[in-house]
Design a protein that fits this description.
alpha+beta; 7-stranded mixed β-barrel; globular
């Protein structure tokens, strides 16, 4: 993320939309969230139960609070769901993840790293990745980079290496609760 983006961040507690798109520029998920602040890992956002998460053809209302990290690398968004959610971690592999017009935006690159209570840690949506990398014509260097990133993140999540540990996320889940939003 650029230095301009750092200076243009909203104040913690500011509600905003996190906008995802697909490689071809088409709309994808839009998440209603709140900016929580920044630490050494990057920028953190929170979402409360009942807030909107939707994409063309699908609406999803979270049942539990969650926090999402956007690291400075801009190549993934790490979401940690509060218990008792069955999916502890959901990491969207991304491209061009950055601030734009005061809100986070990025390209969802299909691959996800998931830590699920019943199924463990795994890389998800590889079938979608295989289909879209051909349909959208992902450049080979992007494919190689993001496949390596997904494998690295899977290893880091398995090891619960910060920020993928519970303690790091708990700080931000507490901050979200302290805002008293509904």
């Amino acid at each position: 993320m650029t230095d301009d983006a750092v200076s243009a961040r909203p104040a913690p507690g500011t509600r905003l939309l996190f906008r995802w798109r697909k490689w071809d520029g088409g709309p994808h998920w839009v998440h209603e969230c709140v900016y929580l602040g920044r630490d050494r890992w990057g920028d953190w956002f929170g979402q409360l139960p009942g807030w909107d998460s939707s994409r063309p053809g699908r609406v999803f209302e979270p049942q539990h609070p969650n926090v999402t990290l956007l690291p400075p690398s801009g190549d993934f968004a790490y979401t940690h769901n509060a218990a008792p959610h069955r999916t502890r971690i959901y990491i969207d592999i991304a491209w061009d993840l950055r601030w734009q017009h005061g809100e986070p935006t990025g390209i969802d690159m299909d691959l996800d790293v998931v830590d699920h209570v019943d199924r463990g840690v795994y890389i998800d949506d590889q079938d979608e990745w295989d289909e879209h990398r051909v349909a959208y014509g992902y450049p080979l260097d992007v494919v190689v980079r993001l496949e390596a990133l997904a494998a690295d993140l899977e290893t880091r999540v398995l090891g619960r290496i910060p920020p993928f540990d519970d303690a790091t996320a708990e700080v931000w889940l507490t901050r979200l609760a302290e805002l008293g939003l509904q």
